[in-house]
Specification:
Radius of gyration: 20 Å
Distance between the termini: 58 Å
Number of strands: 4
Strand order of the largest sheet: 1-2-4-3
Largest sheet: 4 strands, antiparallel
Structural class: alpha+beta
Length: about 140
C-alpha cells in the first residue's frame, strides 16, 4: 500500500513537470498590422502585416467581416505582441470580438484578441477615418 502511494505521488509530480515544461515552450513575438475597414450595416476589412518571431519576419494577410451598426471607412495601424505561440503558424486563425467605437479623424485604438490555438494578440495604435460601429466582428489572420 505504501508503494502505491509513493508511485502515485511520483506520477503526479511527473505530470506536473511535463505540463510546466510544455507551457514554458510557448513564446512571444512582435506584430504590426495595417487594416482598412469600410461598411454600411455589413462591413469588411482587409490588409496585411508582419510577425517578428525568433529573429525572422513573416508576412501576414488580414481580412474580416463585421455585422451590426457599421458606417464609414478607416485605416488602422496596430503594433504590439502575440503571446502563447510555439511556431509562426500559431498566429494564423480567426479572432472574434464584439465591440463599439467611434473614430472621426484620428483616434487611438487598443485591442486584445485570442484565436482557437490560444495565441493572444495585444495590439494598440492609431485609427484614421470616419467610422462608427457597434458590431460583431471577426478577423482572420494567415501567413502569406
Amino acid at each position: 500500500m505504501r508503494i502505491s502511494s509513493v508511485l502515485r505521488t511520483a506520477l503526479i509530480a511527473l505530470v506536473a513537470i511535463v505540463g510546466m515544461s510544455r507551457a514554458s515552450l510557448a513564446e512571444s513575438g512582435g506584430v504590426t498590422l495595417t487594416i482598412y475597414k469600410a461598411g454600411w450595416i455589413i462591413g469588411g476589412s482587409g490588409g496585411g502585416g508582419t510577425l517578428y518571431f525568433q529573429g525572422r519576419r513573416y508576412p501576414l494577410s488580414v481580412g474580416g467581416i463585421d455585422y451590426g451598426l457599421v458606417f464609414g471607412g478607416s485605416k488602422t495601424v496596430l503594433r504590439g505582441y502575440v503571446r502563447n505561440i510555439r511556431r509562426p503558424s500559431d498566429v494564423a486563425g480567426v479572432y472574434g470580438a464584439a465591440g463599439a467605437g467611434l473614430a472621426v479623424g484620428r483616434g487611438a485604438r487598443a485591442i486584445i484578441l485570442t484565436n482557437q490555438k490560444g495565441a493572444v494578440l495585444e495590439l494598440s495604435g492609431r485609427q484614421v477615418g470616419l467610422m462608427a460601429n457597434a458590431d460583431l466582428s471577426g478577423l482572420a489572420i494567415s501567413l502569406r
